[in-house]
Design a protein that fits this description.
This protein is α/β, with parallel strands linked by helices. The protein has a domain at 48-162: Rossmann fold (3-Layer(aba) Sandwich), CATH 3.40.50.150. Helices cover 29% and strands 14% of the residues. It has 6 helices and 5 strands, in the order H-H-H-E-H-E-H-H-E-E-E. The chain has helices at residues 4-7, 10-18, 29-43, 63-69, 81-86, 110-116; strands spanning 52-56, 73-78, 117-121, 136-139, 159-162. The chain has a 5-stranded parallel β-sheet. Helix 4 (63-69) links the parallel strand 1 (52-56) and strand 2. It is globular, with a radius of gyration of 15 Å.
Length: 168
C-alpha cells in the first residue's frame, strides 16, 4: 500500500519527473505504481542496455518509454482493438493502438524507441507460449481486471513485478 511518505520521497519525485507526470500535490495510486515498478527495476539492475522486459496491458503508460530510453528491449502488449473497444478501453484515452502512442510524451527519442520496443496484442488470460525468456515482466493497473495469474506465472523471467503484488 502506498503511503504519503513514499509519495513524498526523492525516488517518487525522480520517477514522476522521468515519466513527465505531475507529482505534487497529487497523490495517486497510478503514479505510485509507476514509481514503484521503475525503482524496483532500477535497484535490481534491470533498467540497463540489453535487458529484456515484457509489459502486459500497457495502455498509454509512460513506463515503456522510460525503459526504452535506458536501453531496455521491451515487448509491450495490450488487448486487440476490438476487445479494447468492447471493454471500454479504446475510448478511455488510456489505450494505445499504435507503437507511437506509447511514447506520446517524447520521453525516448523516436528512433531509439522504434528500435527498442515491439508492440503486440496479448490476452493476459491466455498468454502466448512464445512470450518467454525475459529478464523482467511487469504490469501496472491490469491484474485487477483479470482472474488468476497462476496459469502462466512460472516462465523463465528473472524478475517479475506487479504493483498489485508485493513480496514480503
Amino acid at each position: 500500500m502506498a503511503t504519503e511518505a513514499q509519495c513524498r520521497s526523492d525516488a517518487f519525485y525522480y520517477w514522476c519527473e522521468q515519466t513527465r507526470l505531475p507529482h505534487e500535490p497529487i497523490f495517486h495510486r497510478k503514479l505510485w505504481e509507476y514509481a514503484y515498478i521503475l525503482q524496483c527495476l532500477s535497484e535490481t539492475g534491470m533498467m540497463s542496455p540489453g535487458r529484456r522486459g515484457l509489459g502486459f496491458g500497457v495502455g498509454k503508460e509512460p513506463l515503456v518509454a522510460v525503459m526504452a530510453a535506458r536501453g531496455c528491449d521491451i515487448v509491450a502488449t495490450d488487448l486487440d482493438i476490438d476487445e479494447a473497444t468492447k471493454q471500454g478501453w479504446a475510448g478511455s484515452g488510456e489505450y494505445a493502438a499504435t507503437l507511437e502512442a506509447l511514447n506520446d510524451r517524447g520521453i525516448c527519442p523516436p528512433e531509439r524507441f522504434a528500435s527498442k520496443v515491439i508492440y503486440r496484442v496479448a490476452d493476459m488470460n491466455k498468454i502466448d507460449g512464445d512470450l518467454v525468456g525475459f529478464d523482467f515482466v511487469y504490469s501496472s493497473c491490469a491484474f485487477e481486471h483479470l482472474g488468476s495469474i497462476e496459469p502462466r506465472c512460472s516462465n523463465s523471467s528473472k524478475t517479475a513485478l506487479s504493483a498489485c503484488v508485493r513480496a514480503a
